[in-house]
Amino acid sequence: MPHRKSTLGPPVAPVSAGIPFAVAIRRTFEQGYSLARLRKDALAGVVVGIVALPLSMALAIAVDVPPQHGLYTAIVAGIVVALAGGSKHQVTGPTAAFVVILAPITAKYGLSGLLTAGMMAGVMLTAMGVMRLGRFIEFIPHPVTTGFTAGIATVIATLQIKDVFGLPVGKLPDGYFEKVAALWNARQGASAAEVVIAAVTLALLLFWPRVTRAVPSPLVAIVLVALGVHMATLAWPGLQVATIGSRFHSTIGGRVVPGIPPLPPMPMLPWGDGGLTMERLRALSGPALAIAMLGAIESLLSAVIADAMTGKKHDPNAELVGLGLGNMIVPFFGGIAATGALARTATNIRAGATSPIASVVHSLTVLAAVLVAAPLVAYVPMSALAALLLLVAWNMSDVRHVAHTVRVAPRSDVAVLGICFGLTVAFDMVVAISVGVVLAALLFMKRMSEMTSSRVVLASSPGEDRARSLPEGVSLYEIDGPLFFGAAQRAMGAIETAGVGARVVVLALGTVPVIDASGLVALESALERLRLSKKLVVIAGPLPEPRRVFEKANLEVEHEHVFLADTTEQGIRLAQDLILLTPTGAPGSGRGGEKVKA
Known about the structure:
Elements: H1 23-30, H2 35-62, H3 68-84, E1 92-93, H4 99-130, H5 142-159, H6 161-164, H7 176-185, H8 192-211, H9 217-235, H10 244-247, E2 249-252, E3 255-258, H11 278-310, H12 316-329, E4 339-340, H13 342-350, H14 357-377, H15 382-397, H16 399-408, H17 411-426, H18 429-451, E5 453-457, H19 465-468, E6 474-480, H20 488-492, H21 495-499, E7 504-511, H22 517-532, E8 536-540, H23 544-552, H24 555-558, E9 562-565, H25 568-581
Parallel strand pairs: 6-7, 7-8, 8-9
Antiparallel strand pairs: 1-4, 2-3, 5-6
Helix pairs in contact: 2-3, 2-9, 2-13, 2-14, 2-15, 3-12, 3-14, 4-11, 4-12, 5-15, 5-17, 5-18, 8-9, 8-15, 11-12, 11-13, 17-18
């Protein structure tokens, strides 16, 4: 899950009229697609497919479903989203970030509930794309994404402890701290063999890239470890190691097959025999929303980072539509929720991909592996896959970046990061993002209110150039910054000070870019207080937007003692005229009862 401050990248491409659909693939062929590009895409797709194969199985197992469902996700969603989406280089499939959301859904509603929730999330994502909400990712603050990403990584790493140590733990509790307690209580049953397998897998994953990057390290590590474990069990028949074949079984034609079935994803009804009832839809609406929100965030961030790596531009709305269609279709083939996978997308780019065809080839590579190598998958140790996810969680947490943020960011941002991290671990991502965004918004409002300042200039103010041009009986009250609900009361609070000893107050708003309803209410309250003090008011220099607000509010009509001027200088001259025309200080009227115009 990406969360670096470099994720802004280049601007996204402008959207076109109509429903944003298949934008990336259309642009690919409009620009001309050659045989040379096809060769590059095919090679990149094969490389990414090899990387996706063990990851897809590991992530499916992490959410407590058979490993083939992760493979089906990579196959179907990888093709659909690539052809229907808005990014040329995005690779879609199961991701680690979804583990903390999908695992509780599986525990409570089973596989059918998980698939149904994913389908419902697909409908929501498609609607978000059609409504052109693809730019909403810009409004999620960086400390929020950093905090919940690190929290997700922590939960994922904790879940792998069971298989890394071979702990005899059955079904883990729902709560995070209860999970930790259950794992700790089972520590006496740890298996040295499982720990060695996980350690060797981690060592290969870390050190193989130093040898060569031509062959992906997950493939090398998983194959070598599975081969070594198989040979060890033949040499020592008493050696017990948990594998995919010992943990999962499939029934094909009445025959039990260990591991995954050597079959392509077949059509099915995601909701199973229980049917699709309104009660079930209501129960799954919350989990589906969580899937949709996290899927959108992760996929769009991944697409932005892909743009930064390639210099290309993605269409965020088309990407949401493609992601939604992929998640709507994949449950009908047994696939779980999918989103853009940053690690696989980055691998795709580094391998030379030029178009969405590479992601299609990646899916076909996974399909070929399922059809040809399914019997071999049964020999993969569970602890090896757990070690792979440990590395994924470590990379996802990006501890170095979190430490840098904590060291240099303002305390308020660090607090938001810490709260989002804690809420993600203790509760879930939806709570963390909701609270984090609200806290970040409050902090933003506080900072914006501090940017709005005001000052009083009197004719007798020492050292003020503008004070020399102020006639006797005129004071100047200047406001600099937006007048919105976070700053309006403070900005208008000292206006009575400007009226002390003056008959006319010039309210200079030439540097106020915007005023909202709260600002207008605060302004009108201040104007009423000045009226009760028998002061005239000249509002000078409002920019176009505040002026439009004043005109809609009929400010001059509703308040007889208020006048408008285009500039501060005009406002001062008008104030001087008002002093001459209203010697008794009667507010709001000029000669003949008509208001003086600037």
